[in-house]
């Protein structure tokens, strides 16, 4: 199966989320983000405004799952500048290694729960 489903979903969510100023690529991957249980993952670069989304092979043919995954990763992209700024503050303001790691992991799980909530709302209303 080709990339048509991925590209179509990506175009849709870029438009809905207003991410036209980002350069976002998308492809099928064996394991998304190094996590066997993840359906998709994204690597983003806030300065360059580039992102690479990987969607796990397991989602192939399931257009609803593909749509939800691409929505989810695009919301991560939309939140990139905010997360990046908070990460930078943590890095600059916290000298203590373990405290910085803890702050980063709290930030990551907070972002994940916000992204999951927005994904559900967006897929329900724009899916
Ligand atoms: Zn996520």
Number of domains: 1
Order of helices and strands: HEEEHH
Structural class: alpha+beta
Query: How much helical structure, as a percent, in the residues?
Result: 55-70%
Task: Provide an overview of this structure.
The chain has 127 residues and is α+β, with helices and mostly antiparallel strands. It has one domain (4-126): Zincin-like, CATH 3.30.2010. 59% of the residues lie in helices and 16% in strands. The chain has three helices and three strands, in the order αβββαα. It has helices at residues 4-17, 63-93, 97-126, and strands at 23-29, 40-45, 50-56. Strands 1-3-2 form a three-stranded mixed β-sheet, covered by helices on one side. α2 (63-93) packs antiparallel against α3. The mean pLDDT is 93. The chain binds zinc ion. The site of zinc ion (ZN) has 4 residues, from α2 and α3. Zinc ion (ZN) is lined by residues 72, 76, 112, 115.
Ordered list of secondary-structure elements with their pairings:
Elements: H1 4-17, E1 23-29, E2 40-45, E3 50-56, H2 63-93, H3 97-126
Parallel strand pairs: 1-3
Antiparallel strand pairs: 2-3
Helix pairs in contact: 1-2, 2-3
Bound molecules: zinc ion.
Zinc ion (ZN) binds near residues 76, 112 and 115.
């Amino acid at each position: 199966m080709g990339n048509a489903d991925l590209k179509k979903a990506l175009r849709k969510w870029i438009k809905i989320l207003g991410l036209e100023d980002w350069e976002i690529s998308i492809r099928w991957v064996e394991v998304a983000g190094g996590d066997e249980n993840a359906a998709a993952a994204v690597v983003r670069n806030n300065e360059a405004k580039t992102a690479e989304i990987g969607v796990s092979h397991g989602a192939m043919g399931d257009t609803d799952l593909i749509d939800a995954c691409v929505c989810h990763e695009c919301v991560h992209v939309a939140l990139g500048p905010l997360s990046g700024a908070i990460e930078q503050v943590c890095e600059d303001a916290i000298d203590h290694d373990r405290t910085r790691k803890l702050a980063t992991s709290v930030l990551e799980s907070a972002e994940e729960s916000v992204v999951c909530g927005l994904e559900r709302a967006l897929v329900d209303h724009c899916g």
